[in-house]
Amino acid sequence: MGICGSCKVKLLSGNVNMEHNGGISEEEIEEGYILSCCSKPLDDVSIET
């Protein structure tokens, strides 16, 4: 549901559709972070590990 933020990762490439209920700020999204629990890849993606 994307409310706790514990799955936050940096998206390095690709696009996702992220539908969340909080757990991530607009600033973090602008910096390239996503919540992996509620992000559906739209193409090939790479994340920071």
Characterization of this structure:
- This protein has one domain.
- The chain has one helix spanning 26-30; strands spanning 8-13, 16-18, 33-35, 39-41, 46-47.
- It is built from one helix and five strands.
- 10% of the residues lie in helices and 35% in strands.
- The model has no long low-confidence stretch (mean pLDDT 96).
- The longest helix is centred in the middle third of the chain and has 5 residues, at 26-30.
- With 49 residues, it is mainly beta.
- The strands form two sheets. It has a three-stranded antiparallel beta sheet.
Largest sheet: 3 strands, antiparallel
- What is the H/E string? EEHEEE
Low-confidence spans: pLDDT under 50, at least 5 residues?
A: none
Percent of sequence in beta strands: 25-35%
Number of domains: 1
> How many E-type strands?
5
Question: What is the fold's blueprint, element by element?
Answer:
Elements: E1 8-13, E2 16-18, H1 26-30, E3 33-35, E4 39-41, E5 46-47
Antiparallel strand pairs: 1-3, 1-5, 2-4
Characteristics of this structure?
10% helix; globular; three-stranded antiparallel sheet; 49 residues; two-stranded antiparallel ribbon; mainly beta; 1 helix
Brief synopsis:
With 49 residues, the chain is mainly β. The protein has one domain. Helix content is 10%, strand content 35%.
